[in-house]
Amino acid sequence: MGWVRRLFGKTIALDTAPLIYCVEENPHFLELVRPFFGALEADEFKAMTSTLTITETLVKPLRHGLRELAHAFHGLLAEHVEIMPVTAEIAEGAAKLRADHGPRIPDAIQVATAVTHKTDFFLTNDARLGRLNQLEVLVLSNLED
């Protein structure tokens, strides 16, 4: 929980993986993300993400007809996470990130969304994004309970 305390009062941009780990109760990461989402639900800090996250979280539920899982993603996002649209400014920022550093377009959009909205942290589990130096990136697999 120590890493979560440093987020109190801040704004955190979320990559898709932490949401998936929470909702799908990933056995490798659930104990790490549970305190984060508990603090988020308690309004200890704010979270935001790109509209792209809706697409990324719904692929599996739609592919496999898992309506309850889709509903769980919708609920978490609607109640606790501000969804930011992909604007022209974000699209241009993502293109620059991709051109300069090579991340996949979805990752570049997520990071550009966080940078554009001047979030304090970006929570992901993609260590490659931590090397972009655009903002402070928290990589779940590098964090401790």
- In angstroms, what is the radius of gyration? 14 Å
Oligomerization state of this entry? single chain
Spatial order of the strands forming the largest sheet:
3-2-1-4-5
Strand-pairing-aware structural class? alpha/beta
Going by CATH, the architecture would be: 3-Layer(aba) Sandwich
Distance between the termini: 5 Å
Uncertain segments are none
The ordered string of helix (H) and strand (E) elements is HEHHEHHEHHEE
Question: Roughly how much helix do the residues carry, as a percent range?
Answer: 40-55%
Q: How many helices does DSSP assign? A: 7
The profile of the biggest β sheet is:
5 strands, parallel
Query: Going by CATH, what is the homologous superfamily?
Result: 5'-nuclease
What is the CATH topology descriptor? Rossmann fold
Measured by DSSP, the beta-strand proportion falls in 5-15%
Q: What's the CATH class, please? A: Alpha Beta
Mean pLDDT: 94
Domain count, please report it: 1
| Rough outline | globular
Task: Give the number of DSSP strands.
Answer: 5
